[in-house]
Amino acid sequence: MIKPSIIALIVSGLLILSALFLTYKEIYSKGTDISGIQLINLILFFSSAIALHGLLHIQAETKYNYNPLEGRIIV
Length: 75
Known about the structure:
This protein has about 80 residues and is mostly helical. The protein has 2 helices and no strands. It has one domain (about 5-70). It is about 75% helix and about 0% strand. Helix 1 runs antiparallel to helix 2 (about 35-65). The protein is elongated, with a radius of gyration of 16 Å.
């Protein structure tokens, strides 16, 4: 059975990827202009999301001896 922290790690990764995709689509595909404050907010949001995702990776690596670069799936 998959542990809840691994599910949180997977879900947060998918949400970060979808947010990055939607941001790219909104800014570059539609040509939407954003102000400096909005750009700062986006950068801060993504840095917080990636940092939290990294902390989940540290927890998974230490608690479950999980290294995603090895390609093992914990069940």
